[in-house]
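# step 3/5: fold
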Amino acid sequence: MEPLPIPCPAHLIPNASGTDAFHEAYRQAMAHRAVFVAIESDGPRWTVKADTLTAGPGHSVDDTVNNAVRAAITRLARNHEVGLDAYAGPVYFMMHGVPSESRARELAAALHAALHGDLEPLNRAVPPPVT
C-alpha cells in the first residue's frame, strides 16, 4: 500500500472498518511515517479517525491549525453532525456519528489536509461562522 497523497482525495481515504483493517491501515501509516487517517463503519453511521503520532517526531501541527481543527469539530458537534464525544486533538482526532460514508470521507480528507497545514479543505467542509 502506498502512502496517501497530500492532499488526499476523499475517495482514497481508507475504510478501516474492523480490527484487521484498522491495524493494517495504522501499520501502513507508521511504516510510511505518515499521518494516519481513516473512516470506519459504525452500523448506519461512520467514524473519522486521525493520528499524527504515526508521522514521527518530525511532523508537527502548529497551534493555528490545532485551533482551527478543534473549532471545526466543535461546530460539527454543536450542529449534531458528529457525536458530542468527538476528540479534537492535538495529536489524536476522532468523530463518531457521521451520517454517511461520503460525509465521513469528506471530513477525513479535510482533516488530513489540515494536519498537513492546508486549512482550505476544512473550511470548505465545515465553514467557519460568518463574523
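# step 4/5: annotate
The chain has a mean pLDDT of 95.
# step 5/5: archive (pending)
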